[in-house]
Q: What sequence folds into this?
């Protein structure tokens, strides 16, 4: 007897068990891609598989849906491979060991691949039942979403004609994603000249407690350790403390709010550096994260200090550097539309490297912000060394027929059952929807999914009741799309 015996929809969970037997971590998608392609061909569909292992299946409309626009269903085949302590699971060859725990399906001390196996299984379930009423479908199975959306990026869309896209890569049943951010990594160098100085040296450090992903937590106004440190140095400057700057470094990744930053300075004055803690306690008193200052005396040292002019320019630049949430969604004012995170600061002998990650669902706003950064660094003067990892966003559309239809359908048929109502949400991070929209302008898009907990961790689990409702909901939406 299989683990999912008796769960509904039966076909969905049969496919879930089948793909659990096929290792399909990101970058290891040959086998799952072949499985999905073969299954589509076996069922009699026109299908193609490309060099990125994406699979595209064309399903003709049911009788009575000849006038309905084509709908694309889409999700990614790859999964995140994480295992808990003590697990000997080999993601390159071992099948996932599924088990059922009350209302959840999970795997034994590994990720489950519900993200985004739910999409793969729902699409296969629809394809295998030719009695289901629906418009013409383009089922798109992409690869390597988790490591950089490489499948979607490489997908040839020239044979795709969908007007609507239902992306199946969300993990909250009542959340209807209607926009996502595009982004870019901005890097600039500020050159510095140095002179030898012999004086007492100090290491000033800032540590925070939470930090977090720069897309998901930027609206919380958490302290950015790099900027707290820069402000601290700015206060010393304003107080007239004569000091030399040796280095300033902080942050590990451009897309994480930096939690630790430190500077080495030299000064002959004896200062209680920690007096400034009070200012930051006050500044972040309503925030869920706090900066902690510390100062360590390093004794008298001889070091190459940054010239006074360069120090002045650097501190001024950091004072004016935009950071954090910059604009909010018009119709959903609690959601961030545009933000940036000053993630990395690194001092080398001849320059200081500065890196920010910029996000916006509005392409024009993203470009304007990149332009602002460029202007700021060039005024120091520094050099913009690269704008990379540029990926397109998906802007909120005021009038979306698909969004209205889907949210109304959910509220009419499924809200009474789940006790929840449909909520429109915007994700302040990248989704494959942004890439597909850039290739198919005008596409009307909504992203949905069943309830999943702790995705990308060994505790990942899929709510089986929510999955059943989610599948019935998608079938109902397709049934309603007659014209
Ligand atoms: Zn996913």
A:
């Amino acid at each position: 007897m299989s683990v999912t015996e008796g769960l509904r929809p039966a076909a969905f969970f049969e496919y879930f068990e089948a793909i659990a037997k096929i290792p399909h971590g990101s970058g290891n998608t040959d086998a799952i891609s072949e499985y999905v392609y073969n299954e589509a061909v076996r069922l009699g569909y026109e299908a193609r598989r490309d060099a990125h292992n994406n699979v595209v299946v064309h399903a003709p409309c049911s009788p009575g849906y000849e006038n309905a626009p084509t709908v694309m269903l889409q999700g990614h085949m790859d999964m995140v491979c994480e295992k808990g302590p003590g697990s000997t699971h080999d993601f390159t060859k071992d099948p996932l060991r599924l088990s059922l725990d009350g209302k959840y399906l999970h795997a034994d001390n590994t990720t489950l691949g519900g993200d985004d196996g739910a999409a793969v299984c729902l699409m296969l379930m629809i394809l295998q039942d030719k009695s289901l009423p629906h418009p013409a479908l383009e089922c798109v199975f992409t690869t390597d979403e988790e490591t950089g959306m490489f499948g979607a990026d490489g997908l040839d869309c020239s044979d795709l004609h969908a007007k609507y896209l239902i992306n199946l890569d969300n993990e909250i049943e009542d959340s209807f994603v209607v926009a996502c951010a595009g982004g870019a990594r901005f890097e600039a160098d500020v050159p510095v000249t140095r002179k030898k100085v012999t004086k007492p040296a100090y290491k000033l450090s800032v540590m925070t407690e939470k930090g977090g992903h720069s897309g998901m937590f930027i609206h919380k106004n958490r302290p950015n350790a790099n900027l707290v440190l820069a402000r601290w140095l700015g206060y010393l400057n304003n107080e007239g403390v004569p000091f030399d700057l040796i280095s300033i470094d902080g942050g590990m990744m451009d897309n994480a709010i930096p939690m630790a930053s430190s500077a080495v300075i030299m000064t002959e004055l004896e200062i209680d550096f920690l007096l400034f803690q009070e200012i930051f306690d006050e500044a972040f008193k309503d925030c869920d994260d706090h900066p902690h200052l510390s100062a360590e005396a390093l004794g008298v040292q001889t070091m190459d200090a940054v010239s006074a002019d360069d120090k002045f320019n650097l501190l001024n630049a950091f004072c004016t550097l935009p950071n954090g949430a910059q604009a909010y969604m018009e119709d959903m004012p609690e959601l961030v539309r545009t933000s940036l995170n000053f993630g990395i600061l690194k001092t080398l002998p001849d320059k200081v490297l500065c890196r920010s990650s910029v996000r916006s669902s509005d392409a024009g706003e993203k470009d304007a912000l990149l332009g602002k950064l460029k202007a700021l660094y060039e005024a120091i003067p520094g050099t913009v060394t690269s704008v990379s990892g540029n990926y397109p966003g998906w802007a909120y559309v005021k009038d979306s027929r698909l969004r209205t239809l889907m949210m109304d359908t959910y509220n009419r048929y499924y809200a009474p059952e789940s006790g929840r109502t449909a909520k429109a949400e915007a994700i302040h991070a990248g989704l494959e929807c942004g890439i597909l929209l850039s290739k198919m302008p005008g596409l009307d898009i909504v992203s949905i999914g069943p309830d999943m907990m702790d995705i990308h961790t060994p505790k990942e689990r899929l709510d089986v009741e929510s999955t059943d409702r989610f599948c019935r909901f998608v079938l109902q939406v397709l049934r309603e799309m007659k014209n």
The pocket of zinc ion is lined by residues 76, 115-116, 145, 169 (CB under 6 Å). The chain has a mean pLDDT of 96. The domain at 183-391 is CATH 3.30.70.360 (Alpha-Beta Plaits).
